[in-house]
Design brief:
With 346 residues, this protein is α/β, with parallel strands linked by helices. The chain has ten helices and 15 strands. It is globular. The relative contact order is 0.16. The longest helix is centred in the middle third of the chain and has 21 residues. Its cofactor is Zn(2+). Keywords: Metal-binding, Oxidoreductase, Zinc.
Amino acid sequence: MKAVVYEQFGMRPELQTVPDPVPAADGVVLRVEASGVCRSDWHGWMGHDPDIALPHVPGHEIAGTVVAVGAGITRWREGDRVTLPFVSGCGRCPECQAGQQQVCRAQFQPGFTAWGSFAQFVALRYAEHNLVRLPENLDFVTAASLGCRFATSFRAVVQQGRARGGEWVAVHGCGGVGLSAVMIAHALGARVIAVDIGADKLERAAELGAEFVVNSREVDVVTAIREVTGGGAHLSLDALGHAQTCADSILCLRTQGRHVQVGLLVAEHGRPPLPMDAVIARELVIYGSHGMAAHAYPDMLGMIESGQLRPERLIGRRLTLGESVDALTGMDTFSGTGVQVIDRFN
């Protein structure tokens, strides 16, 4: 099969011919019909993820068709149209037994713990309870765009953040995760404030439901949000993953507000200083959010099928497998406002 492979961290990946995968006893092989290109893939390529062993094939936002099943698989068969969370739980650890597969102790992550979906085929472990059947009217490109950014945002806004209609929700960073959060919070009836340094991203956020936008290059973010909301946001999300956006997200909250850290903090931002004086004085709540378990997908898919959520509006460039190399290596520029998806693999 054809696959995008990198031999060293930070070294330009190449399109190569590699052996076709075979399913493990607890796994399946998918023909990849679409794969998102996510900033987490860029972090992996840069060497920020200790689970990656070289050589490596990136890609974790997957939609495809089952073409082979392992001996232990009973729920899935060839021809099934599926997607999956970027974290697949083992099903055996205490977290999985409690329904929290997104924080499994022995999680399988395509594109990180194993070769991923920048390829014509991908082998997936723990498939029995982690695959998600696609509704017939949901196309593969849209389904792939859900796998990390949109599903992660859904859990962050709905399950961790508990956003409610009429609340002020601030979203810091309007990349794929942030724009997804804007759309989801707006669909729930929240009043959304979007924060970014890019005028194009803020314009897109307004189109997707942000009531107010804040350009952090032009004004003090915390002051602006507290003024607009009359005291601070009820819920704020750092959708970027930076020491400054994390601090701004916490400090812009009103008393007993909720901060959700959804953007990945890595390298020098991995352990940022936090304004704990404000957390204590205003009884703020801080949550982490890491993906979403497969059993939680029906709520999200239901909102998509009903038309409340339209993730297809977030899709930007559609790429060939070869074009994904430039898309991956250029993700540090934060250019563009849409989710890039590979949909041609020949």
